[in-house]
Each structure stands twice: as C-alpha cells, then as structure tokens.
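Let us work through a complete example step by step.
Step 1: write down the sequence.
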Amino acid sequence: MTPAQLQAYLERLIESQLPISTMIWGAPGIGKSSIVAQVARQHQFDFVDVRLSQLAPTDLRGLPVAEDGISKWYPPEFLPHQGNGILFLDELNMAPPVMQGMAQQLILDRRVGNYEVPEGWFVWAAGNRKEDRASVFEMPAPLANRFLHLSVEPDFESFKAYALAANLHEQVIAFLSFRTSLLHKLDPQQPAWPSPRSWEMASRLHGAGLDVAPAVGEGAAAEFAAYCQLYADLPDLDRIFRGVAENLPFPTEPSIRYATTIGLATRAANAQQGYQAFAWLSDKATPEWVQLFAVDLFRSLRSKGKLGELAILVQKDEKLQKFLKEFQELVVAY
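Step 2: predict the structure and record it as tokens.
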C-alpha cells in the first residue's frame, strides 16, 4: 500500500476501536514512523516510541526490587500508564531474539512483568525487510502470527501531498515531480542516498543554500543542481499572479513545465493569486497540466485555509467552472 493508504488504514483501526497489534513493513526512509506519529497527533493521542534494539531485557521488564521477601518488577517510566495513545515499537526486527521475546509478551498479553498496557492504547510496530539490506533478525513465527502485517511502498503522490503541507522547498517538489524514480533509490554502498526522509533533509539544506549531496548522495544531488538551473527559464510568475501575463506562453520543455506548475501552486500566497494562476494556466496549457496544477493548488491553499476563498472566485469564472465540471472527480478528491 502507499503511505496515504497506510495512514487511512491506521486511522480506521482507531476509529473502529480495534486495538489489534499491527506490524508495518517497508524500506528505510519512507516515513513509517512519521505516519504513525501523525496519526497519533490527528487523534490527539499520546505517542510513545520505543526502540527495542537499544534496550536490554531489564529496560523493558523493569528492575527487580525486594519487597516483604518477594522480588517484584518495577516497570520503566517510559511505558504508558494512563490515557489514550499509541505504543510504537519501532525497528522491532532489529532487536535481538531475546528482546523480540520480551516484545511477544507485551504484544500478545499486553503486559510484561508487573506492567500492563492500559486500555485505550494501541500497540503498533515497524521494521525493515531483509531485501532492504537492513541489519535485521528473523522474526519468530509465533510473534509474527500475533500481528496484522501491512506493507508500505514509496509513492510520490503521497510524498507530494505531505511535502506541500509541510512547506518543503518548491524546487525539491518540482524536481521529484519530474524525476519520480529518485524519490527512493536505496544504495547500500553509499552512506547517503535518496529517500523521502533524506529529501526532507535536503529541502532544509537547499533552503539554507547548502549542498544537498550529504543528504541524498552525489548522483541525485548533481541531477537536482542541474534541474535548479532551469529556473532561469521560467515564465515571470509574479506577472501571472498579478493577472498581467496574457502574452506569456506556457513553456514547451517538460522539465520547465513541472517547475512552472509547482511554482505557481506553492508560491500562491492567497486565493487571488491562486485564481490568477488558475486562469492563466487554463488558457495557456493543455488539460492534463491544468489538472496537475489544480491538485497541488487545492492542497496548498487548503493547508493555508484559503480554499473556500478560491472557490468563491472560481464560481464567477465560466471557463474555470467548465474545467471543474469536466474534472469533477478531482474536486471531490481534494
């Protein structure tokens, strides 16, 4: 499933009050942990991230303390004791077998030692696959059989939706729109390689004027640098936002077209600018480019709380109304 589908599935588990232990499988860097954290935030849940590979058995079970001649286990303070939340066992299969055995009791019985997971808490886990060349241990069959298993794959549309909402750098989004194969390209021979996680780091580096190679590797960084040079050939986006771009043509080079549509969608600071860009593009570009732009514009303005204002402006424009009727499914989806 895609990251967006994974998020929807996890949200449905919570909404349906199904506290079934769930294991999320996927390659490194595709956002498994951040999706779970985002689901917790959306439901106003507490979130406890436990890395079993960094713990010893006593760290999870607690320390034995003599009390009236009997040894009792005092649980660690990082485990939840009240409220509602998600107990997330990240990198579960990187933990050695003895720790996975401890986790098995926590997952099956929702308790370990004297500790019991409170009601209202979901126990979810995540791990990498063997084919990702991660340093993982085989998950015991009895432990695996106690999980739901969800497999997630990199997906550009899911990443772009996140990137627009998180205000990642426009040029990173435009580049990956053009070179989607570089969203995730594992290279076990190199310390830095492209992934959704490393592109988010690259966005911050690029915004600070720094080389992105330490985040995504030399090859991807070289292609990204070459792509950024195309921005000198972009139409004057400020003229488009002011509504005085009747004579500006839509670029013919596909790479520059991606840069133009992403630039217009992300730079539109308000509904008026979004409307002017929408009107210009619908007049200059073919429907597939207008649709690509509209999806991104709707996402961007929705995150800014401006989508309703755009709808009012569009209702007054017969040409845009015709376009939206032709792509009614697009409007319903976004």
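Step 3: interpret the result. The beta strands are 22-25, 46-51, 63-67, 70-74, 85-90, 111-112, 115-116, 121-127, 148-151.
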